[in-house]
User: Fold these one by one.
Assistant:
Number 1:
Amino acid sequence: MNLSNIQSLPFSLPEALLAVGVVGLFLLELVVKRKAVLGELALVITAAVTCLVAMQSGGQQGLLFSGMVALDGFSIFFKLLLGLAGFGAVWMSLGSNEMRDEHPGEYYALLLSVTLGMFYMASATNMLMAYLALEFVSQVSYVLTGFIRGSRRGAEAALKYLVYGGVASGAMLYGMSLVYGLAGSLDYAAISQVMAGLGSGGVDGAVVAGAQPVIYLALVLVLAGVGYKIAMVPFHMWSPDVYEGAPLPVTALLSVGSKAAGFAMMIRFFYPAVSAYDGDGNWLTAAGVDWQSLLVVASMVTMTLGNVAALRQDNIKRLLAYSSIAHAGYMLMGFVVMADDGLQAMMFYMVVYYIMNLGAFTVLLMVLNQSGREDIEGFKGLAWRGGALPAAAMLIFMLSLAGLPPFAGFIGKFYLFAAIIRQEMWVLAVVGGLNSVVSLYYYARIVRSMYLDQPAEDAPGFVADRHNGVLVGVLAVATLVFGVWWRPVVALADRSLSFFTG
Amino acid sequence: MPEALGLQHFLLVGAALFCMGLYCVLTRRNAIGILMGVELVLNAANVNYIAFSRYGVGGVDGQVFSIFVIMLAAAEAAIGLAIVLGIYRRSGSIDVSQMTSLRG
């Protein structure tokens, strides 16, 4: 089904609710006296949106708004994940001392607008829509990064984010203009037809001979735009600074939300739009343009650089930033296999990554609230001064991030490695394996600090607050449960991998 | 009579603008100079879109796209200048090489 603007409205209820929430929160801040209500309202809205998306799954698929966005299994899967990311960020903000005195109406409205933008990033099937969604997410993220007034680090991080983001999305825009010139259309469906025509030797009216290098250049430029969103080397430079300077709930949203949205947009562009499906689970690069080997190298460099740089970090926010760069590298392993099982492994890994990374950030938030410290000293002897449960949860998240059994992270990595080994990409598999070993060192350092280091004599006791504790508990249990009972999530990822192209 | 103006000429202008924008971003130390470089990159793409729309088979899509880009560039400039202004109020300088409180 391919619906016009008015007909599409009933199918975009989640987005509509988010948009109403954004405007409503801005207005309500002017009239409501008790500001805490605004955050709770935002929490209810994100929860309701996630439920609405869940209700859409298994329903009709099709193109909405005259081919601008797709409603298919793939977009619903990512919208669920992104809705949960928004929910997690709002929940963390409610429990953060950092955000207590800032303008709550504006802040939560901006969080909801990032979520809205990410929804459209995951479902855009037109280059104009994809670019608008990406810029929507980026520009609101710049504001959120520098949201705390009077924070020097926040302002500096926001400027760095803005400069890198502006250049990367400008490069992507330029690349898209080349694709538009070659294909004569902004629609992914039309682009894929032209690309397929190029592959079989038939030259379309819009395509001139010798288009191959131009396509290659265009794809590399587009890669700059999405690569910056997912923090892929060499477009990762902003991420440690921004993660460190931004308020912690925003950092968490950037690391689990906008990374997943960036991957969703990347998959939609590089798979259905510029590659051909052979109907048997494999994808072929169109027009003989070999972007695959470029990304194999990018994947290896990304994970290695992320892990090696994380080794010498004392600031946990910065450490998690490098760890999230490394994880972008692992997820790229699923991207380069050019097969459905790789994409499924990626989608499953993104769910697992959401759970364990959000958990790690929430434990860090508890420590930050208590001691005002976000470096490794704040974790010293955490288990022996009243923080036994948060320390146990952090242990689970860290070992899961490192990819040890029996946690969910192990299963996620197992599927990724299985996908590349099936394609016999041995070098990538070995590099990925070595990286997992290296990463264990810095994750274990936090665990050692929590359990083996004795707290200082004058160290204040740790009182776990219930609000953040609930989120940490749920995520820790999920990490354990999905480590032994992962079938349902993998099945969901399998079912969700369907692109509606019209 | 000189050769008529064609698609290639516009693409050359676009490519030149793109390179100048990148060069500007990479070499400027003044934050506002960097923002101007970003604008150049965006406008390089705009030239491409309009040229492809005029000479190619893409219809008016490209021209619509460039209007959206102009709008977004304005939004980006507003946000960028607000951030730069905030930094200037706090530290009295917008030299990016002096922004070193985040590193490692």
Note: The mean pLDDT of chain B is 89.
Number 2:
Amino acid sequence: MTSPFTADASLAPLPEKLDPWSLFGMEERAQIDAGELKRAYLDLSRKLHPDRFQAKGGEQAELALAWSTALNDAYRTLKETPARLEALLRAHKLMPAEGTQNEKTPQDLLMEVFELRETLEDLGDAAPNDAQRADLQEKRDDFSSRMSALKTELDTLAASWDEALDQRAKTAQSIVEAFGYRRFFQRLLGELDKALAR
Amino acid sequence: MLRDLLAEQRNTILGIDLGTTNSLVAVAVDCSTRIIASPEGDVSLPSAIALNDAGKLIVGKPARERRVSNPGSTITSIKRFMGLDAASAQEHASHAGYELTQNESSEGVASVTLGDQTLSAPEVSALYLRELKRWAETDLGKSIDKAVITVPAYFNEAQRQATRDAGRIAGLEVLRIVNEPTAAALAYGLQQDQQGKVAVFDFGGGTFDVSILELTEGVFEVLATGGDTHLGGDDIDWAIAEQLFSRTLLASDAKLEAQSKELQQAFIHAAENAKIQLSKHARITVIIDLPGQPEWTTELTREELESFAAPIVERTLSISREVLNASGLDQSELAEVLLVGGSTRMPLVQRKVAELFGKSPRWDIDPEQVVALGAAVQARILAGGLEHMVLLDVTPLSLGLETWGGAFDILIPRNTTVPASASEGFTTNVDGQTKIKFHVLQGERELASDNRSLGEFVLSGIPPMSAGEPRVEVTFSLDADGLLQVKAKERVSGQEASIEMRPSSGLSSEQVDAIIKSSYDNAAEDFQSRILLDRRTEAESVLRAVNKALKQSSDDLTPEYKAQVEAARDQLQASFEGANPDAIKQALEHINETTEELATVQMNAVLAHSVRGKTLDDVSNS
């Protein structure tokens, strides 16, 4: 866990890169316990808020401002699934660079919305008439429910990520066990070879 | 001497509500707070200044009383002009009884002219702050130079900065600017140890705010906030006044706006009274004294008044719905709704708020005092007390930059918890370019020109490189007060660029310094009057004591000595009635010398009496 405080309970300078999970003392996972996050956030807010350092003034007050800013930012990142997942991908260098693939509209949707785009352009700044309004509302409801579905999908993907993490941990455990056996056999074979060589 | 001791022991920080109609000051004492009243016992200071008949500047109640008879020389509701340049201020000036100082350029700060003095809005506000400071110093018996001042949550950067300037001009170090609804929540939270989600509906004389907060074990987290810095009781008064005016035979097609200021103020005054009366009664008779005419009367019912006020109240409800939406909460999740501000005394407002939020609102802490009390709580937190409490407020307006084509690019969205920051990358367009200019604004509109300009920033000191090479990272930070700081770094060279801000409006810090300096010249005068006041106070108490002693010990004194004391007493009395502090000082010294013997006589008498079985109390009460 990254602690903002030094041994004598004063504020340390902000590290160059701050890992949000580490600040809240949480494991770097795609899913988090909202209650736990909130409690940690409130607790740290009490300790880091610039108001707490008003009396101390000077450098400590400035550090408190920097830490609070970072804290609020970290909380915003972890609070909502999309922001959290993006932070995860960036941390593991899995987020494509700006202006490339992820920013373009998925091909399969382009055709679907082609007509809709034309309708909106023709409408310009004018208010839609009743028929247009009904049509636009229908499309809105449709896309709105697809947006909700996406939200659920991201939650599912987050769970997948964590499962993969857990699986990886299990696999690592199995590898460590295998290493144990390997060392054991290496030593035993060594002793047997020595005996057989005589 | 005792005074100095107390001042050393605790550095008191004041909590001040600088209101549109009334201002109040409060202080935290251990685990509770209290409002500090004036030496005369007034708990609030009307936010008004005026010139009296002798042409002297007066502040508070006596000033407010002149607003109907002398609207041109009575300044009220200056808060509406805080943070505005002279040109934008004109848009809000039509209902004021006074004229704003004319200023063709939009660079001048909104100002008023009284007699031969022109005062900017922050300078006027400083007069209220100075008066409240005086109340506090008299009450607490020590000098005070630190305060927390509240502002409407919806105040933008310029309006907040103007409030800070006012504090500085008044000789107060403003440790924190706190949003009014949040301050109110603090006051309730301290008192009631509140938990859960709370809505604060703050409807004052000139501004409206609504905030939704979550209170968890001492942490006050604002979830969303909204408002209108030019919507308040004053607007309701005007709406009622307009309706009353249209009933008069003076009307026909004439509008109240086209009438003289005196006439307007007469109707506004009647409207305000009607509003207050109809909160208690169902129907009243409105009487208006019209200049040069017989008085005019009309009957008015509460229903009628409410219909006049309805459109304005509806606006507050519509903003409230938006904020509830922005918070992501459903009304059923709210534990409490708190009413703050004088305008919430209207039954119409109370009903509508209850309807909107689906629960009965609370106003058990006086709606007009709760903000100042909350500011005092915040002051306590800053002084190091109440360690479990902390305020997590939000910025009410989106912060962004103007981009190519005049669009508005948001960097920090509204309702973001502060402190907060965002970075943006810039580069150069021309080879060897060493400066970059950008325009910072606040607001929610698509086009930059529809938003509130904070100023232009000029970044210089970029090392000359080919166009597009430099990587300038500019970080925009909002501190706990919601005020903006800008830092820039050129990443290729690692150089910190220097930033110069040209604010779109507001007093420059040089201007504030100049104002403070010129007030020192006046301070010499003030100082003298302060000394006179102190000496007269002392003289008064000495006179009382001597007269009493003379009465008690008259039998024990020789006629010659008694005459001596009486002469010294008369001298003191004469100097007390005069205006010369030195004369009083002399008289005091003389009487102290003269009455030494009298003191001894008194003391002996006391001892003698007690020997005879009388108590000290009996003696001093005789």
Note: Residues 107-196 of chain A form one domain.
Number 3:
Amino acid sequence: MQAFGGKVLFLDRSNINTDEIIPAKYLTEISKEALKPCLLEDLNLEGFDPSKDIYGRQVVVTRANFGCGSSREHAPWALEVNGIRMVIAESYARIFRQNMFNCGMLAIELPAETIDRLFMEFAGPDTEIYADLEAGRLQVKSPGKQADIAFSISGFDRELVAAGGWVEYADARYQAAR
Amino acid sequence: MGKTVAEKIFDAHRVDNPAGDIYVIGLDAVFCHEITTPVAINDLAARGKDRVFDPSKIMAVIDHVTPAKDSKTAMQGKILRDWARRHNITNFFDIGRNGVCHALFPEKGFVRPGYTIIMGDSHTCTHGAFGAFAAGVGTTDLEVGILNGVCAFRYPRSMRIEISGQLPEGVFAKDLILYVIGQLGVNGATDCVIEFAGPAVESMSMESRMTLCNMAVEAGATCGICYPDMTTVDYLWTFIEKEFETPEAALASYRKWLPDEDAAYEKVLRFDAGDLCPMVTFGYKPDNVRPVSGMDKTPVDQVYIGSCTNGRIEDLRVAARVLAGNRINDSVRGIVSPATPEIYRKALDEGIIATFMDAGFCVSNPTCGACLGMSCGVIAEGEVCASTTNRNFYGRMGKGGMVHLMSPATAAATAIAGHITNSALFEE
Ligand code: SF4
């Protein structure tokens, strides 16, 4: 299984929708790579500059209901082609969360207090978070500080990540099902 | 313990239960459009899996940007068109016959009570108006739907919204659903199916029920559901008359998709439709809702009437009633897009198109277009659009633009006034 983790992009807002993650005008792209420069282009967040703040980040930490709005899987893809394969949030919109696991990526949910703590104690450009899927732990590191946080995902989601996504998983099992 | 509608549908369609509350269900229909499907088609081809599980259960339409506006959108249409031909998907709707998916597919009779439907589009929840489980999914789920005719969901939790009384004159399904979203919040129904019940819903047309279910996703819901009744059967009758002897027999059969009396709901919300007034959104989230009177005099640059929420004949009729004999304000650009060719034709026959044109509206072809800021009415930075669509996200209809969601009646009155205002149909 692939490793998940790296430097963190903190997005301190709830209800970040998929139009903000990848604006509709880029839905005419038919390759994932083309989405790379457009990630979070329309994010409505004070002080955030997509041209500077995304580069080199592998993890997003954000608040509640991340990925609400349109069903576009372009949102997880835009994250993926920028090297961001793990999102940590208080909660997600259903479709976005499913899309992440369907692509073999991680959408981890943590309680509001834990998310608060991450923002209060760790928000900054040098924080890194790594996920240990087997142990269900997150290692959080920033200069002079660290934390070890438990998380859980369902066995099914773990299998999707292990299979590399839902297409391979499903086609192996359900071709003759109907 | 009794079952909710969604639980009955899931139990009847269960293919597998790979873990805990995860159900893999068989699909009765997979709907496709040219924005999210071409990527799925290309990805399946790249995996050596260019197959479809059953071409008769796949319906496809080019609706989001049509006619194509540039080479990229032309290519999206071409990929979908070539694929439909290659796999013998006969229910494919190309230019001349195409319309907004969630208005077109019901009109063609593709939705039935008890059906399971997915589409790579979040407003697929619209089709729950027929008592179906219909959910928007991402491209990967769509790929598996196309390939194997199945989709995985968490076993559904349901909430029920019971609406007593009747909507006052000049207040519509759109106002009702905006009010509900305002009450629930944008994630108040996440992972839930919402059942809409009560006299106010029972007396609604199928068009109004679709408006209601269309915006269930704006509260985070997987699907909105209305219970099948004689209104549902009448709407479907021409498509099902070979299956059933009489409409009553059809209804008797569809009654198996009603919830049990002792079904368990996560939450039950009750209110009286008679207390409602016309509603409008004011911010960048669809739960930023307030009465139209609270936004009175907010100037707008454009008024848009159309989309899968409110581009149906009933919506155009109401707007035309408000517009009749009036001109829209000089400061406003008015655009109307009948959601399907059939609606367009009816609107022509009934003189509604003439009313719109006399009032100064531009009549566009059936398309999503401006709703998602891709064509046919994109707004400029700093501009304000009064719109009958379903999303007011920042930049939704054009970068830096503001969208106020409202009913067709309010939109028409706003076009005449040049600023947000109640229609004359509503008396305070
Ligand atoms: S009309 Fe708007 S909301 Fe409806 S399907 Fe088209 S783009 Fe989506």
Note: The mean pLDDT of chain A is 93.
